[in-house]
Design goal:
459 residues, alpha/beta, Aspartate Aminotransferase, domain 1, Aspartate Aminotransferase, domain 2, 2 domains, four-stranded mixed sheet, 17 strands, 37% helix, globular
Length: 459
C-alpha cells in the first residue's frame, strides 16, 4: 500500500513537472489536485487512487461505445499480431482498404474517395487544400476562387488552415497574424441572435445574410466550411431545422463546394450516424475523426466526390498530385479499430437503442431550465450544452473571472462525474453506450453541481 501511495505521489509530481496540457492554464493546473486516469470500463473511468467517475464527455467526444469494448480490444490485438504500421505513401494495407470501402458504403451517397489523416484538425486541413488545389488545376476549376466562407463561433481544429476558418475569438484571435483571410458569416446562435430576432418569426435572417455574402463573393470563394447541425466547441449551438439543407442549396446555386466538418457530430452523436443525414444532404467534402475509431486510436478521414478526385488525375509532369500526407496515414491498427467500431454499430443496433436514451435525456434536461442561472439548454441527440448566465431576464453573462463553468465541473468531480465546460456552457456528451441509470446519475450530479456553485456565488 505504501509503495502504491509513493508511486501515485510521484506521478502527480511528474505530471505537473513534465506535461503541458492542452487548452489548460498550467499556472492554475499545478495548484489544483489533479486526476490521473489509470483505467476504464464502459462509461466509468478510474483514477490512480481507485476513485471512479462517469465519463460525461466520452473522453472528448470520441469514446462512442465505452471503454474496453471487447470487440474493439480484440480487433486491435489481432492486428498487432500482423503489423502495427506500414506507410500508405505508394503502398496500401488491408485494414485501410477495408475501412475505406465500409465508410463509403454508409456516408451520404456521392462521397466515393477516402483520404486518411490522424486528427480532426488535419482532416479539415486536407479538405481545405483539396478544395483550393482543385480550383487551381481541374479542367472546370477557377484559379480566382481562393477563399473560404465559414461561420462565426465555428471551430474546425488547431492547425493554421483550420484555425483560419475558425470563428471563436478566445481560441483563434491570438494567431491572427499567422492566418489566411476567410470570409465570416453570422452563425445561427438563436439564444443570442446577432440580428435581434427570435424564432420562428426571424425567417432565418442568418441565411439571408449568408446568401448576400455568397452573392458578393462567389467569384472568389472555393468552399464553405460548416459543422452540420451543431457548432460544438462554441457551446453546442444548434442550427434551426432546414438551415443545413438551405446552405447546401446556396452552395449549389453559387458554385461553391460544401465542406461538412462532421468531426464532432459524426458517428451517432446526433441520433443518426452522420448529422448530414438529418436533412438528406451530401456535401462535396466531409471530414471525420473523433468517434471514427471508437475512441481507441488517432485516425481521421476526408471524403470527397469522384468529381473532385478526378481533378487530381493527370500525367506526372502535370504536377496535379495532391502533395499532402502524414506519417501515420491509414495506420493499420487504427483502421482495424475503426472497422470494429462500425461493426458494433451494425451488430448491436446502437442507433436504434439510442433513441430511448435521447428521449430520456431530453426529459431530464427540462428540469434544468428551472434553475435561476440556466439560460438555455441545447440538445441534439446525445450532445448537450447548458448555458449558465448571471441574469435570466437580461441574459447577462457571469464575469469571466468568476469561472463559473470551471467551478461547476470541479464540483461535479467531487461527486464522481468528469465533464468539461466551454466557458460558462456545461457540455454533456456521454458514450452512446451509457445506461439509463448512468444517464440519470450524470444529470443528477450536473444539476446539483450547477445549483451549488451558482448559489455559493450569489451568496
Amino acid at each position: 500500500m505504501k509503495a502504491i501511495e509513493e508511486r501515485n505521489k510521484q506521478l502527480e509530481i511528474d505530471d505537473g513537472k513534465y506535461i503541458w496540457h492542452p487548452f489548460t492554464q498550467m499556472q492554475d493546473y499545478v495548484k489544483e489536485e489533479s486526476i490521473i486516469i489509470e483505467k476504464g470500463s464502459g462509461c466509468i473511468l478510474t483514477d490512480i487512487n481507485g476513485n471512479e467517475y462517469i465519463d460525461g464527455v466520452s473522453s472528448l467526444w470520441t469514446n462512442v461505445h465505452g471503454h474496453r469494448k471487447k470487440k474493439l480490444d480484440v480487433a486491435v490485438k489481432k492486428q498487432l499480431d500482423k503489423i502495427a504500421h506500414s506507410t500508405l505513401l505508394g503502398l496500401s494495407n488491408v485494414p485501410a482498404i477495408r475501412y475505406a470501402k465500409k465508410i463509403v458504403g454508409i456516408t451520404p451517397k456521392g462521397l466515393t474517395r477516402v483520404f486518411y489523416s490522424d486528427s480532426g484538425s488535419t482532416a479539415v486541413e486536407v479538405a481545405l487544400k483539396i478544395a483550393f488545389q482543385y480550383q487551381q488545376q481541374a479542367r472546370d476549376g477557377n484559379p480566382k476562387k481562393k477563399k473560404f466562407i465559414s461561420l462565426y463561433n465555428s471551430y474546425h481544429g488547431d492547425t493554421i488552415g483550420s484555425v483560419s476558418v475558425g470563428g471563436i475569438g478566445l481560441f483563434h484571435s491570438v494567431y491572427k497574424h499567422l492566418l489566411f483571410e476567410s470570409i465570416k458569416a453570422e452563425s445561427p446562435y438563436c439564444y443570442r441572435c446577432a440580428f435581434g430576432k427570435s424564432r420562428p418569426g426571424c425567417n432565418l435572417e442568418c441565411l439571408s445574410r449568408l446568401e448576400e455574402i455568397m452573392n458578393a463573393h462567389a467569384h472568389e470563394v472555393t468552399a464553405m466550411v460548416i459543422e452540420p447541425l451543431v457548432q460544438g466547441a462554441s457551446g453546442m449551438l444548434l442550427q434551426p431545422p432546414g438551415y443545413l439543407k438551405k446552405v447546401r442549396e446556396l452552395c449549389d446555386r453559387y458554385n461553391i463546394f460544401m465542406i461538412a466538418d462532421e468531426v464532432a457530430v459524426g458517428f451517432g452523436k446526433t441520433g443518426k450516424m452522420f448529422a448530414c443525414e438529418h436533412e438528406d444532404v451530401t456535401p462535396d467534402i466531409m471530414t471525420l475523426a473523433k468517434g471514427i475509431s471508437g475512441g481507441y486510436l488517432p485516425l481521421a478521414a476526408t471524403l470527397t466526390t469522384e468529381k473532385i478526385y478526378k481533378g487530381f488525375l493527370g500525367e506526372y509532369e502535370e504536377l496535379k498530385t495532391f502533395f499532402h500526407g502524414h506519417t501515420y496515414t491509414g495506420n493499420p491498427l487504427a483502421c482495424a479499430a475503426a472497422i470494429a467500431n462500425l461493426e458494433v454499430f451494425e451488430e448491436e443496433k446502437v442507433l436504434d437503442k439510442l433513441q430511448t436514451k435521447i428521449e430520456h435525456f431530453k426529459q431530464r434536461l427540462q428540469l434544468f431550465t428551472a434553475l435561476d442561472n440556466v439560460g438555455d439548454v441545447r440538445q441534439c441527440g446525445i450532445m448537450v450544452g447548458i448555458e449558465l448566465i448571471a441574469d435570466k431576464n437580461t441574459k447577462e453573462c457571469f464575469p469571466p473571472g468568476a469561472r463559473i463553468g470551471h467551478r461547476v465541473i470541479k464540483e461535479a468531480r467531487k461527486h464522481g462525474l468528469i465533464i468539461r465546460p466551454l466557458g460558462d456552457v456545461i457540455v454533456l456528451m456521454p458514450s452512446l453506450s451509457i445506461s439509463i441509470d448512468e444517464l440519470d446519475r450524470l444529470c443528477d450530479i450536473t444539476y446539483e453541481s450547477i445549483r451549488t456553485v451558482t448559489e455559493k456565488y450569489k451568496g
